[in-house]
Amino acid sequence: MKKSTFKLLACGLVLSSFALTTSCSSDDEKNTDPVNPVTDGRWITVAGAVMQDEPGDGNGGTRVYAVSKEDAKNPNFSINVYENGEPVQSTRTARLQSSVDGSTLFNISYGTNGGEFMTYKVNGAKNFVQSGTTVSIAQYAGPTPRWTKLFDGDKTGVAVNVATPVVVTNEDGTYKHTRGSATVLSLDLQKIEISDYRQYQIPLSAEEEALGHHIFRLDAPTVNKAGNKLIIGTWMRKTDPATGKNQASFDRLGSKSLVVDYPSLQNPKIITSTVGFGDTSGYRSFNSFVATDGNIYQATQRDTKNGSYILKIDQNNEYDNSYVFSLDTALGVKGTYIDAWRYVGNGIAYAVYSHEGSEQGYVARIDLNAKTAKLVDGIAYDTDLNFGQYQGFVVDGNDFYIAVTPVGKDGNIYIIDIPTGAVTKGAKLVNKAGNHYIGVF
Q1: Which domain, by its residues, includes 350?
Q2: Whole-prediction pTM value?
């Protein structure tokens, strides 16, 4: 009663002081709408990577198994994708994406005879029906293309590739530059066909190229809020001009992205951050997201000096160098490395990462607006937990799903409440020696 009386008095004072005409709201009237759309009856597809030669290499293929949301949330329910799951086409680790409602898996095979795009209808358990239609993009993007699905209502996927960079010399035999031919290709996910593609070389500045810097790989394309540009992450390398050989250790340039017109895929342009110095390509997963504020946020990798940063690309498709977000600083550790991450709405994201001195994986909750991060408690961390090949998260309403299994050990699906960060342990993931689960879709 006292609290209610105080609230009424306070409300009256505010109204009197500022001549407001709106009433004060009650705590009981908070917006309870979910952060993201909810799909009733959605399947949660679990993917596991099979060991080939070494524990955790994941190069022996990929198996999938689908369960209901209710079973995924049930800690007494067990999933064994290796004994009961269905293989998807790929000689190595498949690069999977899923439709927003979880009813379809999209796959581009990877490795020997790779580069073939197909879909799978998800019907529960090991019942995945492969599309009768497939399309090979290998002649354009090679047998190991990198690709992501755009957040455009499951309409488009974009695959990218850089042919092996070649050293070019001047007429007198001195070093000139290193370049590879890039391919950017769009896929119609519904018709299962190539929509368009472009191929071009992507030069850096003359000064950068003279020092041997070049783009080694492209990955993680994202369409901007306006829908007229693609932002594509880069993985940079450097040739030693004196020897013409790859230079393993070098002073890194500022983080770079390739921007091309969309949907034409033309007019390639390089943009450069002065905040981050890592690569922006990610690894087998999304690495850039359009946030609620309309800007793109992008993670960096492979910066051994400064750890991972979250960079901001504004709606003019340029890096906003006034936005400085070091994951090292936010977490109070050194040498952070974001293996994969996912934006979940309202400025909140979750990242799986490691840090200096260990390859063990952890999960962080990130606030992009406050530029803060904290370790997620309530997850069973283990020295053999490694997210290096992690690919898939599911966002459904207020629920964020993640698969957590140390290599060769059992683990669980975890469900995190997006507004509060509360963690719930879900279904048990039964593992097999040398294997690990690489995502939920």
Answers
A1: 36-93+332-441
A2: 0.92
